[in-house]
Inverse folding.
């Protein structure tokens, strides 16, 4: 596989504030509309970062709703899968945390999974808890284990 052909098909944007996040959401919407057949997956890393940092939570919630509303509409209209990551509220041990962003995220998103890392000196373990899914009423968990290698190799055969 030639890595040049893979990376030329990846678009990305970095937001520096909530207003910039909103502007990028509008740009992404236009990009998806213009390249309807080419884009099948949209990944948003740390969607709730600016909500958590905002001093005015009402304004932060309004901007978060607008950003997610724009992206959900364009993704559903063009059959693009939308995957978001975000933070969760800190809770006491044993209780499944709720995503930051209020109940809006719970009502808007179809599937919510909470990942928690628990690592030792020789292995990594993640507990994945399915918090919300349209076909399941109660949360279910699974443990994912892997070993630490310390490096990652990428092979380029171009």
């Amino acid at each position: 596989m030639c890595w040049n052909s893979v990376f030329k098909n990846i678009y990305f944007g970095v937001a520096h504030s909530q207003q910039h996040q909103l502007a990028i959401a509008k740009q992404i919407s236009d990009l998806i509309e213009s390249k309807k057949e080419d884009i099948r997956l949209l990944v948003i890393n740390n969607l709730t970062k600016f909500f958590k940092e905002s001093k005015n939570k009402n304004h932060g919630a309004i901007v978060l709703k607008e950003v997610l509303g724009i992206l959900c509409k364009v993704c559903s209209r063009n059959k693009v899968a939308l995957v978001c990551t975000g933070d969760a509220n800190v809770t006491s041990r044993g209780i499944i945390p709720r995503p930051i962003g209020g109940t809006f995220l719970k009502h808007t998103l179809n599937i919510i999974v909470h990942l928690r890392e628990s690592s030792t000196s020789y292995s990594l373990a993640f507990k994945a808890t399915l918090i919300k899914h349209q076909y399941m009423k109660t949360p279910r968990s699974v443990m994912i284990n892997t070993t630490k290698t310390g490096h990652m190799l990428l092979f380029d055969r171009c």
Notes: The mean pLDDT is 76. The helical segments are 3-7, 18-34, 49-53, 57-77, 103-108. The chain is about 35% helix and 20% strand. Residues 111-158 form one domain.
